[in-house]
Known about the structure:
The complex is a heterodimer of chains A (400) and B (64).
Chain A: E1 4-7, H1 11-22, E2 29-33, H2 48-51, H3 64-69, E3 73-76, E4 80-84, E5 89-92, E6 97-99, E7 102-105, E8 109-111, E9 123-124, H4 129-139, E10 144-148, H5 152-163, E11 167-171, H6 179-182, H7 184-196, E12 200-202, E13 207-213, E14 216-222, E15 227-229, E16 232-235, E17 239-241, E18 253-254, E19 256-258, E20 264-266, E21 269-271, E22 276-280, E23 285-287, H8 292-307, E24 320-325, E25 328-334, E26 341-348, E27 353-360, E28 363-370, H9 373-384, H10 389-396
Helix pairs in contact in A: 1-8
Chain B: E1 2-5, H1 15-19, E2 24-26, E3 33-35, H2 45-54, E4 60-63
Antiparallel strand pairs in B: 1-4, 2-3
Amino acid sequence: MTGVVVVGASAAGLSVAETLRRQGFDGRITLIGDEPELPYDRPPLSKEILSGRWPDERVWLRDEAAIAGLELDLRLGVRADGVDPAAKTVTLADGVMVSYENLVIATGVRPRWLPGTEGVPGVHVLRTLADARALKVLLARQPRLVIVGAGFLGAEVASVARTAGAQVTLVSDLEAPLADVLGRDLGALLIGAHREHGVEVVTGVLVEQVLTAGGRAAGVRLADGRTIEADAVLVSIGSVPNVEWLAGSGIEFGNGVLCDEFCQAGPGVWAAGDVASWRHPALGTRLRIEHRTNAAEQGMAVARNILAGGDPVPFAPVPYIWSDQYDLKVQIYGLPRGADRFALTEGSVDERSLVGLYGKDDRVCAAVGINKIRAVRAARALVAAPTSWDAAFRREGTTV
Amino acid sequence: MHVTIDEEECCAAGQCVLAAPEVFDQRDEDGIVVLLDAEPDESRYAMVRDAAAVCPALAIVVHE
């Protein structure tokens, strides 16, 4: 037995290692991470860490003793450069070669930059602890900050930055930011909350260029010719899966590592977390999910399938995400994107407390809650088991 | 097995309740975790370990 090699030492990779041990696997586990830190948690970076509500040390996923207890061959601060599935070896950037019986690819994603802005002083992204620390130093100066991209990450940073006293402009190329995931009403509710808190929200226009002065970011120019002056720019326009290191290996990748419903990409090759694209058996579609809970659940599923030998179990989670913005806690079960209908089952937009269901092809495909934590958990059942739209409303009752 | 929770850490995701409903619940008003059974029966060990593992806030500690 030459053991399991896990490439990627964040939530998904750690979940694989921990689950293997919990299930009694006593072989070698090599955990490789390109960042120097012990595994840490990313959702707090744009929330508690950035706002300073938590000290940095609360970001570690496990303390040193717990990591030591896993008896890992832990290799941090070194990238994996390539893999040879025939020889079953992974080559690291420091020249070391590690052999495996099972390989788990959990290399995650990296931020997408606006072209030509990577490395420009004053232009930030937020993915790593180092990124969060740099952004936190910036916010302490109460800067003028332009945030490019109004997805959950950009919106969360806008909320923290505004609360910290920064002058924030949130720019989205979409006419209705967040409407692609939440629908128009709830997207408008969230964007409205930003405006109420004093964020300048600019929609429906692309950022053409980051302007610089003396080599530093000094603002942005929009496609309609307007310019917005700023002391710094945060680029939050999505992510790119870290798959390039697999080039030439024969492991299939595209928008992520292409896996089957068991999260397997080939003999003895698996993927978990943000980088894994797999066939969701119940939804009948290929998914790649960049969310924290999926990383943990998929890591657990992969570890169990590795140990299951010839009897693996398809990975069929109910996706879950949450986002905190000002006093709004948003929770979503399922996949609202592409829904053809939406209706509230409890509360209202005006109360800023509600539960709603999204439907597609006459089935409930997602449930959303805003400041309704228990009720949305109950509504999850309508997403977990196939439920027709009408049946859901017979059960739930409706305020619409 | 002895289970402890950290309310301060809890982000109210509710994943623990889904994993082990006999051991965890959530407060009505804010969704913060409520520990129903700090010394769960052996038959529930596996689900409690899963609950701790899927907690996105790492608010559940299992002492074994």
